[in-house]
Specification:
With about 300 residues, the protein is of the alpha/beta class. The protein is about 40% helix and about 25% strand. The chain has a six-stranded mixed beta sheet, with helices on both faces.
């Protein structure tokens, strides 16, 4: 299943950096050496086995942007499933950025009206923490006001390559492309109940993006999944540098037991259990017993 994803925004907004972190295992500090994208860079990213993201990373220099909207308009914007527009929050030419964004919306409406549209307000780490929500909400309202007259729905995220917000945004964007995701959610909820777990989270194996989760006991930290994604991804990279391979992780203390296990050929599962009467061995047995079922289920859904 091939899904066309456009990654657009002005030059220097951070498009290639975030793509490299999510899909090419770059550390945030390593993206400093990346150069500007020339014209369009195409890449096919396999996700959950049969889902293939046909990712078009579009260079944001003015000459290229004008070309996308004129001579290449049909070629670029036809058959798009997802448009991701990235804004540098400290852009020195906001009016031009807004102009390009509006042109993208018009082109998508004309050529791919059913496309999902996401806006990433990026480099939020450059804004003082106490001002970030206010700055983001102001930009979000502005972007929504441009989309509404075109009868287009957009979803906005504030992001930075230096924290978990990048994983949160990309997890939700990629999740929107998974067909029959409600069925996957339902089966995960059953596994959560069988394990008497507080929570079960499913991660994609290569990117460690969150695919789905089931919760039986609420938690105050809404960013916990993306924090785990970020931490484990960094740990996996550290392992690879020493010719070691990440396989499994268990964390136990007085409050809970956490199990991160290779689950299917395309996923990892994290199971959190706080009930002290549940033995770790029984949790591991349930994970093992459900592997074949979820392997077959994911193959059928995608």
């Amino acid at each position: 299943m091939l899904q066309k994803v456009l990654l657009m925004g002005k030059s220097g907004a951070g498009k290639t950096s975030m793509r490299s972190i999510i899909f090419a295992n770059y550390l945030a500090r390593d993206t400093m050496r990346l150069g500007a994208t020339i014209d369009v860079e195409h890449s096919h990213v396999r996700f959950l086995g049969n889902l293939v993201l046909n990712l078009w990373d579009c260079g944001g220099q003015e000459a290229f942007m004008e070309n996308y909207f004129e001579s290449q308009r049909d070629h670029i914007f036809r058959n798009v499933q997802v448009l991701i527009y990235v804004f540098d929050i400290e852009s020195r030419d906001l009016s031009k950025d807004i102009e390009y964004y509006a042109s993208c919306l018009h082109a998508v409406r004309q050529n791919s009206k059913a496309a999902q549209i996401f806006c990433l307000v990026h480099k939020m780490d450059l804004i003082p923490e106490e001002q970030r929500d206010q700055v983001f909400l102001k930009r979000e309202r502005e972007l929504q006001s441009i989309a509404e007259p075109l009868e287009l729905r957009i979803q906005c995220f504030k992001t930075s390559i230096w924290d978990e917000t990048l994983y949160r945004a990309w997890s939700q964007m990629v999740y929107s492309l998974i067909p029959n995701r409600d069925s996957l959610q339902s089966h995960l909820e059953k596994l959560c109940a069988v394990c008497h777990a507080d929570e079960v989270v499913l991660f994609e194996r290569a990117t460690f993006l969150v695919i789905s989760n089931a919760v039986r006991s609420s938690h105050s930290d809404v960013h916990r999944h993306e924090k785990v994604s970020n931490i484990i991804k960094q740990f996996k990279l550290s392992c690879s540098k020493t010719q070691a391979q990440f396989s499994t992780m268990q964390v136990r203390n007085a409050r809970y037991s956490a199990f991160i296990e290779g689950f299917t050929s395309t996923t990892y599962a994290m199971v959190i259990v706080s009930d002290p009467t549940i033995q770790p061995a029984s949790t591991l047995i349930n994970i093992e017993a459900s592997r074949a079922h979820f392997e077959s289920l994911i193959a059928q859904l995608i």
